[in-house]
Design brief:
There is one protein chain. With about 550 residues, the chain is mainly beta. It folds into three domains: about 150 residues, Jelly Rolls (Sandwich); about 130 residues, Jelly Rolls, CATH 2.60.120; about 210 residues, Galactose-binding domain-like (Jelly Rolls). The chain contains one helix and 37 strands. The protein is globular, with a radius of gyration of 28 Å. It starts with a helix and ends with a strand.
Amino acid sequence: MKKQRFIVSIFCALCLLLAPFTAASVSAAAAAEGSVRYEAEEAEIVRAERKGKDMPADYGAYSGEGFVGSIDYDDSAVIFRVGAEKDGEYELFVAYATDVKNSTLKVYNDSGLYATVKCSLVKGWGNFDLTPPAETRISLKKGTNTVKIAKGLNYAELDYIAVGERTGDYKDAGEEDTDIRKPTPGFTRYEAENGAVNGGKIYASSLSSGTGYVGNLDNADSHVAFTVEAAEDGEYEIGLAYAIEPSFSAATLRIFNDCGFYSSVRCERLFGWGIFTKEALVVGTISLKKGQNIVSIYKGNNYAQLDFIEIGAKIGDYKEAGSGAGTAEGPEEGWVRYEAENALVVNAVRKGLGYLTDYGNGNYSGKGFVGNMDDDSRYIDISVTVAEAGLYPVRVRYATGADGAKISTYAGNYGRDGRLQLYGRLECANKTDWGIFEKESTLEFSVGLKAGENFIRIKAAYAEIDFADVGPSTGEYRDGAEISQGNISGEFGEDAFDKEKDEDDGYVAAKKSGCNSSFKSGTVILFTVTAVAGFAVVFRKKRKI
């Protein structure tokens, strides 16, 4: 019995020793395993407030006994005493919550300002459990160190910091090159104010690289052209330094070489007009020929200012420019791609480089995409022919700037019973922005297709459609009623499918008006697919509508 009591005593003692470094609330987001946690409410607090258990303001899912909020002043800070076994640079995790976009916290060690962490808006004040800790580095001396977390841009609350593994040698604050005016190692810089400015304006500034930057890139043809040297043919990294007002939407800048549009970059909302930082340096790709090239940076979606471009290392062989070049990946082997802009488009609008309305970051596939799909009267129909009835996977690439956007898929067949069946409705979880098509912005459905000619209808509630990829059959045919993909209750609106037969070829067309087609009146190009030994073969034909 004495031995058992001794073991229990040791266990309890260990629990007490570990208590300061473990979360009292299991719902708080965790830092890396093995890190040592320091609670904000137990640290020295300067012009801020403790909040939480047994304190005036108690809300949120924090760790320990509380957190620190009201870090609202330029001198507001939380000061920790942190131990280290040896000199070195260590992982640092900063657990925060914020309800304000583009917020930051500054990280100091005993030698000064060491790093700045970006606090992304995830779920709002007090939601530490749903907000992953920000990750950075901090240099510590052997023994006890002072680590200060201070107010940066806008506002954030602090739950704890956690010190992780040693990652390298000790560095004094300021050794990290964070000055935007210094060229990035391995890159050659070209200042925007020294380029050929078309439809923009040059501004002098001490907050930019060089002597200034280019703003007022407000029109579709607004751009800055640079003369760039390349040692050999190839695809190169290209960096762009930009500025955007935080209250504005995220923007894109389009990159052209001598052959035309090549790729584009997304510009996140950061610190404001005319404020250029290393955080606002984004890297894309460009193909260059040996010798002199003209690289042009055009306005894309929304608005951004341009400080400079940098050309980095060669990363691959030269690629020809073209619509959507360099950014949209091709379909998986055995799958067939159906471009939304080539489908039957009803009450929606084709957009992109090949059409009147051109915006987006250029990473759409083909010549464009379909937008303005804001209610149930707007959709695209894709014609699909298969040799055997079965269940076929369909991947839909989308873009959205709206919360709660959804996409629905239907399937029907031509010239038989004409039934239109709902197979699924899924939410567009990857909210980026309008015209921004990312690989993560892909939804996968399964639809039942009968042997012969079918159509797949895609409806969107506040989303744009780039393409649909159809893969080989995965099983036996099933009706829509047999499959539950997402929330299929609460339809956008009336689902009635009015149809009429064309006596010439049995084509079933929706009785909808205002089809915005770029093709000649009375003709729509449909793509059919025949499944042969697990592969899809594409045929192209015209049908009257």
